């Protein structure tokens, strides 16, 4: 379902490679014991958790999302951006030592690096979502891998299939996309994220993309995480 994905080793000859950034989508779930704590204990624990996130900026930029009730394995999703993985790792360590963090389990960690696409000479408006100052209402994230047959095709054949794929994507300019490259770093090749203010728009985009020829070469595009953007304190309050 990605609009511009391919092997990161193939960078565009006409474009100087930009420095990659580290991006992670971290999913957390609370132990049921957390909600049985006294209200003042929970309030203090949430405050400690939020304080760590705020102090990590600007080295680690965070957006918070609630996945409560939308995925059994996750209740909170943190979208982290940093120049390198080390500050992200250190921030997570500090979070897990807070009052709330001691009751949290990391259930999924999807990460990758930003890289320029080989299929377009410039980033589209959709692909620039990483740098937008404000987030849209919903975030949909999933890992993505292509088949071996995709990479055995010629570059020209793949470009043709992606041109069709991108034409569909351009019809949904209101749906933003962030594509991360995880090849050689994790089990999947890419992490795909879409932002939208209307879930039905994202759903229709996916339905339309499934009808393109490139869909034949999708190996895996699950699990899918749908999350609702909320202010940090509001997202934490939903945890109890």
Structural class: alpha+beta
Radius of gyration: 19 Å
Highest CATH level, the class of the largest domain: Alpha Beta
What is the tally of beta strands? Answer: 9
Mean pLDDT level:
91
Could you state the order of secondary-structure elements as H and E? EHEEHEEHHEEHEEH
The number of helices is 6
Number of domains: 2
Shape: elongated
Which regions have little confidence, pLDDT < 50, spanning 5+ residues? 7-16
Level-2 CATH architecture of the largest domain: 2-Layer Sandwich
Helical fraction equals 25-40%
**Strand residue content:** 25-35%
The profile of the biggest β sheet is: 9 strands, antiparallel
CATH superfamily of the largest domain, by name, is Apc35880, domain 1
CATH topology of the largest domain: Alpha-Beta Plaits
Q: How far from one another are the termini?
A: 35 Å
